[in-house]
Design brief:
280 residues; mainly alpha; 12 helices
Length: 280
């Protein structure tokens, strides 16, 4: 892996993790379009590199929402200690914690099935289109609640929706924003809830996978590209958060839906014309 390739994948990860267009799908499609096989030929490193990129986006989310992270952490600890919920920070922190549970369970039980049966380019194309249509539908519903108005039940339902994002092409931010908008959260609140929910899940996955990577070792010559990719993911992720939150103050999520339509159609066209195979 060259540092230029790592830089490209890091930028792709950072942008697509927070924009509702599927980071996992793009991290598969970009090498597929380039006929780049290093990650495919080194599956153990592929998983480690993927976690390193997600660690970069984790840094971006914590840096951008540093005040909220402190307030919500304090609120969660207070709620646990008192065994009750009194403030909006406590309620939101518990809602986020509850929302992480379904994806953690599903990811732990279905990781092998997901890696073996999901993530083919033609599948990603169809999911980009289908879940883009769901986002467009949900985003046309009324905006009834701010982030402070979200409930623990909202967190659970958004967490259930997040399970679908384990399939590349769905988009974690896309499906959680879709669920949040369907539940009546306004566009800004939906994005913020989605981004804040990313932090505990990616933090846990990073710690778990980092331990495995240290014990398994890495191929020669990948330390530099990993560092480049992680930094690129962190910087581009921070910019993506700022861009999206600024955009949805005045616009809908429709531009991202149209991008998903175009990307999905382009992938299917590339496959249909034989330029690239439908599978790896």
């Amino acid at each position: 892996m060259s540092e230029l390739e790592a830089l490209l994948l890091g930028i792709v990860q950072g942008l697509t993790e927070f924009l509702p267009i599927s980071s996992s799908g793009h991290l598969i499609l970009v090498p597929w379009l380039q006929d780049y096989t290093f990650l495919l030929e080194n599956p153990d490193f592929n998983k480690t590199f993927d976690v390193a990129l997600h660690a970069g986006t984790l840094v971006a989310a914590i840096a951008y929402f540093r005040r909220e992270v402190v307030a919500l952490t304090r609120g969660f600890l207070e709620a646990v200690a008192s065994r009750g919920i009194e403030t909006s920070d406590q309620r939101l922190s518990v809602a986020i914690a509850v929302g992480t549970i379904p994806a953690v369970i599903a990811g732990g039980l279905g990781a092998d099935f997901i890696s073996d049966h999901l993530g083919e380019p033609w599948m990603i194309a169809l999911q980009l289109i289908f879940f883009g249509a769901l986002l467009l539908y949900a985003d046309r519903l009324p905006q009834r609640k701010s982030l402070d108005g979200s409930t623990i039940k909202d967190g659970f339902y958004i967490g259930l929706a997040q399970v679908l994002a384990l399939a590349p092409g769905t988009s974690r931010s896309g499906i959680t924003i879709t669920a949040a908008r369907y539940l009546g959260l306004d566009r800004d609140a939906a994005a913020r809830f989605s981004f804040l929910m990313l932090i505990p899940i990616v933090f846990g996955a990073t710690i778990f996978s980092a331990a495995g990577a240290i014990s398994d070792g890495l191929p020669d010559g990948v330390a530099g590209p990993m560092i480049v990719g992680t930094i690129a993911a962190a910087v581009s992720g921070y910019l993506a958060i700022a861009f999206l939150l600024r955009l949805v103050r005045t616009m809908s999520y429709a531009p991202f839906v149209y991008y998903r339509y175009a990307a999905g159609a382009a992938i299917l066209l590339i496959i249909a014309t034989g330029l690239r195979p439908a599978t790896f």
